[in-house]
Amino acid sequence: MNYVYLHGFASSPASSKATYFRNRFAERGIPLAVPALDGGDFEHLTITAQLQVIAEAAGTGEAVLIGSSLGGYLAALYAARHATVRKVVLMAPAFCFPRRWEEELGADVFEAWRQTGRRTVFHYGEGRERSIGFGLIEDGLQYEDYPNVQCPSLVLHGIHDTVVPVTYSREFQRRQGDLARLVEYDSDHVLADVTPAIWEETGRFLFRK
């Protein structure tokens, strides 16, 4: 079984949750792959390119995907397309990712991004501003808002999340029925204050007999 952790948008394999999960897996003697989803080219980031990075990390055998925010959405997209994925853990998954940008930015800013082809965002993994192309949106719009994941899913979400409202995870769980279990926390998008609790829930989901 290959275990893969997928970080969020403008984050990196060195994120706090990625590091925490890698350490917990190491304590169990299990390697956890944490690929850089931008493939070294953040400016030309697309959903399609990130799915290709995941394919390389997951390999051809059975896999488990753990994703945070955009990484959660990507995990669901990939699992919906690959029967080799046996389980997914989705932390504050950014469902509807491409379609939410205009709502978040406002019509004028979104249109300026479309016209110029790029805009500046803060890259949390690098701690600085980075340019990103509109190709992220153009490519992303071909993908579904709520992937039809045909393996067991554990969804973990904070009820005070203002980046990706918990209602998105509730809708995913409603669509998935018994295949998905949603656990809500008194926390925000980062889930930093409940990371140990999230790990306990994840461990039970992945390793219970």
What does this structure look like?
With 209 residues, the protein is α/β, with parallel strands linked by helices. It is 41% helix and 20% strand. The chain is built from 8 helices and 7 strands. The strands form 2 sheets. Strands 1-2-3-6-7 form a 5-stranded parallel β-sheet, sandwiched between helices. Strands 4-5 form a two-stranded antiparallel sheet. Helix 7 (166-176) links the parallel strand 6 and strand 7. Helix 2 (47-58) crosses helix 3 (70-81) and helix 4 (97-105) packs across helix 5 (107-116). It is globular and about 55 Å long. The mean pLDDT is 96.
Core attributes:
209 residues; alpha/beta; two-stranded antiparallel ribbon; 8 helices; globular
Global morphology: globular
State the share of residues found in helices, binned by percent.
40-55%
**Low-pLDDT stretches:** none
The SS-based structural class is alpha/beta
Strand proportion, as a percent range, falls in 15-25%
Rg over alpha carbons: 16 Å
Q: What is the N-to-C order of secondary-structure elements (H for helix, E for strand)?
A: EHHEHEHHEEHEHEH
Task: Quote the distance from N terminus to C terminus.
Answer: 15 Å
Topology, number of strands: 7
Overall pLDDT confidence: 96
Count, helices: 8
Spatial strand sequence of the major β-sheet: 1-2-3-6-7
